[in-house]
Amino acid sequence: MKSLVTATLITSAMFASFAQADDSKAIQLYGKANLAVVVADEGVDTYSDIKSHASRFGAKGEFKLDNGLTALYVYEWQVNPDDKKDNLTARNQYLGVKGNFGEVVIGRIDTAFKKSQGKVDLFSDYKADIKNLWEGENRLADVINFKSASFNGFKVAATYVTEASDDPEAKPGVSLAVSYGDEKLKKSDTYFAIANDSEVDGVDATRFVASIKLDQLKLGAIYQTEEKVDGTDELDGIFVSAAYKLGSATLKAQYQTADQDMGANKTSTTLGVDYKLGAATKAYTWYSRIDNDIDGSDEGYFALGLEQKF
């Protein structure tokens, strides 16, 4: 509760200080609430629950500078209304400068590797989020992040992860990505990316991403290899997804594998439907099944939820 009050006071203070600024982009408040009823079958346990799926609020803004530059900031928090305590956690929070060259920021931010997946993961923030089987979906503090402007459709992104001052064993890491096309498939009908993590959060990983739009159908695929920096826990996997827009509804499906070097593997299969109720509101349902050959467990999750953006 104290953290929620603190964040509210910070946001209010930012709003008050920027209110007089002669710039319409000085501050923009935004967020979304996403709650669902979830029924889970975890083999030894079956239960129902109310889950928040990355509900959040934040403030962002821009200020024009000299020489064609623009200062920018983002301060965002995740809210967990389904939790009685620790219901506020930091998300992307950074400050930086952008211009014709691209953008440079410092703070807490999604790495270049994580951002390289674009919008291929159709169930991000849900049980079938690719981070539940793979490493690399990192949002880290104490980083410097660069992303270039577009050059004939090509973009370059780099994240340098500094050694945390409070961790003497921490090592710097580098996350790199090169992409082509529009990740949202709005300005182009194709998107491709290749990304690499070197000693980022203790893992080395490489990822290849592709997505394409065919009228109302969107298809996506990822191939990833990863291992710990000491060479153990080698893993490779594939990911495929498909989304088809049908009126106000979007039909979605995706499948992911994680094959370990010892022969054991995990798979995740998910089917779902989003139904648009308004410009910023949708209802959704999905079913995820996770098969784990390592311990022989099978899990199933069904959700019915509502998302409201603001």
From TrEMBL:
InterPro entries the UniProt entry points to: Gram-neg_bact_OMP, Gram_neg_porin_domain, Porin_dom_sf, Porin_Neis
Subcellular location: Cell outer membrane
MF term (GO), any: porin activity
Primary localization: membrane
Signal peptide: 1-21
A GO cellular component annotation in the UniProt record: cell outer membrane
Entry membrane topology: Multi-pass membrane protein
Protein keywords: Cell outer membrane, Ion transport, Membrane, Porin, Signal, Transmembrane, Transmembrane beta strand, Transport
One GO biological process term: monoatomic ion transport
Span of domain Porin: 12-293
Record note on quaternary structure: Homotrimer.
Protein name per its UniProtKB record: Porin
